[in-house]
Amino acid sequence: MAEAKWYVVHTYSGYENKVKANIEKTIENNKGLAEQILEVRVPMEEVVEIKNGAKKTVARKMFPGYVLLNMEMNDDTWYVVRNTRGVTGFVGPGSKPVPLTEAEMKPLGIKTENVSIDFAEGDSIAVVAGVWKDTVGVVQKLDFGKQTATINVELFGRETPVEISFAEVRKLS
Prior knowledge:
alpha+beta, Alpha-Beta Plaits, 2 domains, five-stranded antiparallel beta sheet, four-stranded antiparallel beta sheet, 3 helices
């Protein structure tokens, strides 16, 4: 198997989230693709806007018209992405996609190094940062590609799965 790298896909302006949803739906319907197309991202940034004298923090697309894909490049994945509605093509010379370098990915907050963690599926962990701070849960699933752990939390009286970054949790002893 080839190594997964980050690629940039050009989309129609305003179609970024639709393209992301369409690719994720294709992956969901074709389980073989789930091991080849690992992640689809529309990079967002928090921006403070002032309207009518009131400050408001909003999420804005960092690169309108572009979507990032972490995938293994082969004929099948190229075909699926290229023929997704709203995609105009990969970024690169001609029809040859060029992966992003480490230096290009760093400002985007995308980490490629492997992280070692001291917990596994079934372990109890405590969330130490973020929205779910001070929440305790049992690890249901680990995703090393996204560097997240999925835990169940009680929300409105029912168990709800929540994805949390490895950096925001610690193992309970």
